[in-house]
Design a protein that fits this description.
174 residues; 1 helix; mainly beta; 8-stranded antiparallel β-sheet; 14% helix; globular
């Protein structure tokens, strides 16, 4: 698991110039970061989202092999999108046109990794054993489980347990 997190961190650092350039072009705010470790939600893949993220930048994530999750990635209109979202591992994927303009990618399974790089995305994550690393500008809503919530950090703040009620944070400072 540490290798996966290290890989996510390295990819994130390599993506910083693109995310920072996009952030300057679209808004006068600095890029922010979100890190979520071992998140779990009540209700599994059909329950409440653990992470709801709208970000102009990138999102990297993984699900532990013994846990199940569903990740919905909505590709929002933007300039300079670097390909579509992808996932690898024990995962099934489905792509759906949504409202005639947007594309929704659904990834569902156990022990898989996913990414959405260099664009404008809405990402909704349900399930357990979820790790997320995101950078750019936007907002995130977090909601952990009542029994094992996991932990998170926004913009380099110390890690805290995921809240038992939905809480929204802004990524970046502006």
């Amino acid at each position: 698991m540490r290798r996966i997190l290290l890989s996510c961190a390295i990819l994130g650092v390599l993506s910083l110039p693109a995310a920072a350039g996009s952030a300057r072009a679209s808004a006068a705010r600095k890029a922010g970061f979100l890190v979520v470790h071992g998140a779990a939600g009540d209700g599994g893949v059909t329950g409440s989202p653990v992470v709801k993220l709208v970000v102009h930048g990138f999102v990297l994530g993984s699900v532990k092999p013994q846990d199940e999750a569903r990740v919905d990635v909505y590709q929002l209109p933007s300039k300079g999108t670097q390909g579509g979202p992808t996932a690898v591992g024990d995962v099934s994927s489905k792509t759906v046109r949504w409202h005639h303009r947007l594309t929704r990618h659904e990834f569902r399974g156990t022990g898989f990794r996913f990414r959405a790089m260099g664009g404008f995305y809405r990402v909704v994550v349900r399930g357990s054993g979820v790790y997320v690393f995101a950078g750019g500008t936007g907002t995130v809503t977090l909601h952990g489980s009542s029994f094992d919530p996991g932990e998170y950090s926004v913009d380099g703040a110390p890690f805290r347990p995921l809240p038992k009620r939905s809480v929204t944070h802004r990524l970046g400072r502006g």
